[in-house]
Amino acid sequence: MVSKVLLRLVSAVNRRRMKLLLGIALLAYVASVWGNFVNMRSIQENGELKIESKIEEIVEPLREKIRDLEKSFTQKYPPVKFLSEKDRKRILITGGAGFVGSHLTDKLMMDGHEVTVVDNFFTGRKRNVEHWIGHENFELINHDVVEPLYIEGLAKRVGARLLLASTSEVYGDPEVHPQTEDYWGHVNPIGPRACYDEGKRVAETMCYAYMKQEGVEVRVARIFNTFGPRMHMNDGRVVSNFILQALQGEPLTVYGSGSQTRAFQYVSDLVNGLVALMNSNVSSPVNLGNPEEHTILEFAQLIKNLVGSRSEIQFLSEAQDDPQKRKPDIRKAKLMLAWEPVVPLEEGLNKAIHYFRKELEYQANNQYIPKPKPARIKKGRTRHS
Questions:
Q1: What φ, ψ does residue 165 adopt, rounded to 5°?
Q2: Catalytic one of 77, 183, 196, 210
Q3: Integer Cα distance of 127 and 123 in angstroms
Q4: C-alpha dihedral sign at 145, 147, 153, 155
């Protein structure tokens, strides 16, 4: 009996001991797991911090590039006036990415109008108008007018006014000086300059014929020599050639004796005249030019001095049909448009020289230096046109 009681006591004690040992083992396991968890958590947090730090190092330059791209894509346009719907015009400019066309685009855009530019970029350049791309008032169309746009029919359909950019070349080698709008000109119809001269003359003819036949309003500007920023450096004209030659230390090429005269106007003056003519009731041709007359030789010397160049002046044989005198009579523009040029010649030339110098620097960085083209004797215009 006693032995059975003792066995029961021993068994009870053993059970308690086992339970205690199991409890202690369980606590030890829990403590071990918790410790490992805490350690792993600490390691994980440190690892995450390191990973986050590494990611930040990689991502920050990307963020910087994104910010730069956002800045570049956030177009900052020149200031534009607000015009009401009744005052705002919709204007189509063919050749609007060229020298004169792009400046006219700037003027009309800043005046608050809606402008559509059509250009094939043969001599025009997209960067002449890229500061307007994306603006709600601006549209750019890459198109060559050899595939007709029928703008005269469009003008008739919507009741628009048609402005033709004609030229002083319609006067040819004039026998009247200065040239007035009622002078019919002295043009060799089969000479080397005939394609341009007669092309502009027939353009005027067709515009006025269409006006009489269809009642479309027509304005014709006879533009005299114009210069300024955005001129094509290889266009073979006298201003671009002289500036380019002077900047590069090459001889300034004068054709003939240099006694031929020209009248040079700055591009902003021309643009103001074009806008005034477009808004006027003057349906007959109007001369737009600067009546300040200079010989080609004087002009070459002036550019040489403004550039500070040591270039020599080189005389070459005279080009055929090169006009000997060129000076606009602008009394009509003064009276009917209240317009006359205001930019002094030297001020305008300094702006053009600055532009050409920047162009040369840009092209030098791209391993290309433009060279003046030779005079176009057999076809087209010579440098003095």
A1: -85, 90
A2: 196
A3: 12
A4: negative
Total number of residues shown for the chain: 385
Burial pattern 85-122, b for ≥16 Cβ within 10 A else e, equals eeeeeebbbbbbbbbbbbbbbbbbbebebbbbbbbbee
Tokens representing 207? 């515009």
- Look up residue 131 and give its two tokens: 């500061």
Residue 368 annotated as catalytic: no
Cα atoms in the 13 Å half-sphere on the side-chain side of 180: 5
Query: 337-359 in b/e burial notation, b at 16+ Cβ within 10 A?
Result: bebbbebebeebbebbbebbeeb
Single pTM value for the model? 0.77
Question: Of all residues in the chain, what percent carry a pLDDT higher than 90?
Answer: 68
Question: What digits encode the pLDDT tens for the residues 130-183?
Answer: 999 999 999 999 999 889 989 999 999 999 999 999 999 999 999 999 999 999
